[in-house]
Specification:
The protein is α/β, with parallel strands linked by helices. The protein has 3 domains: 4-137, no CATH class; 168-205, no CATH class; 209-379, von Willebrand factor, type A domain (Rossmann fold, 3-Layer(aba) Sandwich). It has 15 helices and 9 strands. Strand 8 (332-337), helix 14 and strand 9 form a beta-alpha-beta unit. Residues 75-129 have low confidence and may be disordered.
Length: 380
């Protein structure tokens, strides 16, 4: 008996809580999975307390939690028991192994135990933890259009993180924050030297200035739609983001990124960008960006993000000149390469090789999990 049935049911229970407005993060689910390995699974009251604490259920959501727990965590299966029965003597908490431990199947609703591993296999090709976790790790070149629709919620969550990122810079605030003694004493001069109230400072909300250049050539086609969907979510959070698509030529697509569903926006981009999924001349495209847009879009506070596999068919010297100009003006240059998600990958393509000396951060962009890590690079 494996643990996957219980984990699959825990994921469904957390999903049901979210559907009823109870805030449950993926990290909370992982805490809950660990907590269930430390309690007596046959004691429903103990399981309830473990879930209540590990999922960090707020007091106002307690009634919704109890209703869903009563409905989904049944004790009708063989081996389960209700809270009114006499508990076993000296119950031994622990993992789901050994004959003295209760089977996790006892806490599953009818039919869940039989289909838990099958559902996990169907969703990700291998037993997994939850649909969200599988989607975050699924390579973009294996994703379908339905996966893209499901990703919209996760992408919105990523953009929210970007919009609420705190910088190290402290600014005056009227709310909570650390005391600013210098300003406090200066303010006290107006009250005859009496310190009536403390001035405070807090970390400012840092909305980054981004310029994104996305490769839409044929070699990037399995990844481009998902990366552009991610860029669209960034644009919603950081309004000053400028976005360009390039393959054999450069196109500014910022005006096309209007609010709305991701799917139709991507269709407009695919129809409007010349030579979509065609050839690529990275050097010439970036040189065009330098000559036409660099001065007006990039400053010392701007992060330039290049999304490309680095497979350039043009003159390497042109790419070197363009990268040197971009690196000299930008705050930092981040190159996201989907091929870097493969541990066997080496940046030996000529275009990638000559560009790397001008790149501050070189990172993968093959799934949502790698894009989450990219957000930490923006703030670095």
């Amino acid at each position: 008996m494996s643990d996957h049935d219980l984990l699959a049911h825990l994921a469904r229970f957390a999903g049901a809580l979210r559907e009823h407005g109870v805030r449950v993060a993926l990290g909370d689910e992982l805490d809950a999975a660990a907590a269930l390995g430390l309690v007596d699974l046959a004691d429903r009251a103990e399981v309830r307390r473990a879930l209540l604490m590990s999922l960090k259920v707020r007091h106002r959501d307690r009634s919704a939690f109890d209703a869903l727990f009563s409905r989904l965590w049944t004790a009708d299966a063989p081996g389960g028991r209700g809270p009114s029965e006499t508990p076993r003597a000296n119950p031994r908490p622990g993992r789901f192994h050994g004959p003295s431990n209760p089977s996790p199947r006892a806490l599953l609703p009818a039919g869940a135990a039989a289909g838990g591993e099958a559902n996990a296999q169907a969703e990700g090709g291998a037993p997994g933890y939850s649909r969200e976790a599988l989607l975050r790790r699924k390579p973009f070149d294996e994703c379908t259009d339905s996966d893209l629709a499901d990703m919209e919620v996760l992408l919105a969550r990523l953009s929210l993180r970007l919009a609420t990122e705190r910088s190290r810079r402290l600014v005056p605030t009227r709310g909570r924050g650390q005391a600013d003694l210098r300003r406090s004493f200066r303010r006290s001069l107006a009250t005859g030297g009496e310190l009536v109230s403390l001035a405070r400072r807090a970390r400012a909300l840092e909305v980054p200035r981004l310029v994104v250049l996305c490769d839409t050539s044929g070699s990037m086609d399995p990844h481009a739609r998902f990366l552009l969907a991610f860029i669209l979510s960034l644009k919603r959070a950081a309004a000053r983001t400028e976005v360009f698509a390039f393959n054999t030529e450069l196109v500014r697509v910022t005006p096309w990124l209007r609010p709305g569903r991701i799917g139709p926006t991507l269709e407009r981009l695919a129809a409007g960008v010349p030579d979509w999924s065609g050839g690529t001349r990275i050097g010439e495209s970036l040189a065009e960006f330098v000559s036409r847009h660099l001065q007006e879009t990039v400053s010392a506070r701007t992060t330039v993000v290049i999304l490309s596999d680095g497979l350039d068919r043009g003159d390497p010297a042109v790419l070197v000149g363009a990268m040197r100009a971009i690196a000299a003006r930008a705050r930092q240059v981040i190159w996201l390469n989907p091929l870097l998600g493969d541990p066997r990958y080496r940046p030996e393509a000529r275009g990638m090789e000559v560009a790397l000396p001008f790149v501050d951060r070189f990172a993968p962009a093959h799934n949502l999990e790698s894009l989450e890590r990219f957000l930490t690079l923006i703030a670095a």
